[in-house]
Amino acid sequence: MPLRTRNKGVALGVSSHWLSNFVVVYVTPQAIDSLGYKLYIIWAALNASFVPITYFFYPETARRSLEDMDEVFLHERFGITKTRKPGNRRADQGEDSDVDVEIHEDRMRKIESS
Question: How far apart are CA 111 and CA 103, in angstroms?
Fold first, then answer.
């Protein structure tokens, strides 16, 4: 998500999360009464379906900053992701180093110009 719309996207994501939790809590007792053990089979199938979805459609975010993820989303479109490996940022690299600041400023200029 672009920086200018990230707050709206996060708000939408959090509100949909809370709404879906409410629906699950509201519906589950009635579903257990009417479906019995079959509800657990449905739950297991849905959970199993998320393994390939997560692997193929969500990029790897380990050791990547938000700016790095901006670069990933600038170059990838919806569909199967190409970002499988963790980033190259190490724990001993300081966030306040001059190199990081220059890289961040360059990336921000690219994002703002697009």
Answer: 12
- The Cα 19–Cα 91 span in angstroms is 37
The string over 45-54, giving b where at least 16 C-beta atoms fall within 10 Å of a residue's C-beta and e elsewhere, is: eeeeeeeeee
Environment class of residue 107 by beta-carbon count within 10 Å: exposed (0-12), middle (13-18) or buried (19+)?
middle
Per-residue b or e along 80-91, where b marks 16 or more CB atoms closer than 10 Å to that residue's CB: ebebeeeeeeee
Residue type, 42: I
Cβ-Cβ contacts under 8 Å for 72 (sequence gap 6 or more):
59, 64, 83
What are the residue ranges of helices labelled H in the chain?
6-35, 38-57, 66-75, 98-113
The pTM of this model reads 0.52
In this structure, the number of other CB atoms found within 10 A of the CB of residue 97 comes to 10
Q: Is the pLDDT of residue 12 over 90?
A: yes
Side chain identity, residue 30: Q
